[in-house]
Specification:
With 154 residues, the protein is mostly helical. The protein is built from 5 helices and 2 strands. The chain has one domain. The longest helix has 30 residues. The radius of gyration is 20 Å and the shape is flat. The two termini are 23 Å apart. The model has no long low-confidence stretch (mean pLDDT 88).
Length: 154
């Protein structure tokens, strides 16, 4: 390709991306990653059943929102305990982080039941809680891998 041919493919005006646009792209990308992970579990596991692709899209949006809310809560708790000194505060920092991260899975499972009812089913021990935890961990790992890959492109 010549330089002129490449210029034709480039946008007419390259403008810097705003913070709102960056945030939008991050959440859109994370939601699409969650969508892919959910659909891979639906396709290759008999433990995750979702009635339609549309339901999967809505579930990915809900999961992304709830996961970001969980992480924000965990960070607030961490800031609270990190502002204090001593062994008890250090213990409480890790305990409350674990409690927020683990306890949120019950909230997420209940939210999925409220919003989607029988359209999404996680099968397995503890009414599908273990499968949901595996799905969420897989989503977070996939998001992290994509972010690491993106950062290495610079």
């Amino acid at each position: 390709m010549t330089t002129n041919e490449i210029d034709v493919l480039a946008p007419a005006v390259a403008q810097p991306i705003s913070n709102k646009q960056t945030l939008f792209l991050r959440y859109l990308t994370a939601t699409l990653i969650d969508l892919v992970v959910l659909n891979l579990f639906v396709e290759y596991s008999d433990r995750v059943v979702i009635d339609s692709f549309t339901i999967t899209i809505l579930a990915a949006v809900l999961l992304q929102f709830l996961l970001k809310l969980t992480i924000a809560c965990e960070h607030k708790l961490a800031d609270f305990w990190n502002a204090r000194t001593g062994a008890f505060s250090r213990f409480m920092r890790f305990f409350t982080a674990w409690l927020a991260l683990f306890g949120s899975k019950f909230v997420i499972l209940e939210a999925i039941n409220i919003f989607f009812g029988k359209n999404i089913v996680f099968l397995g021990r503890f009414d599908g809680l273990l499968v949901l935890i595996v799905v969420i961990i897989t989503m977070l790992l996939a998001e992290d891998l994509i972010v690491r890959f993106y950062r290495r492109l610079a």
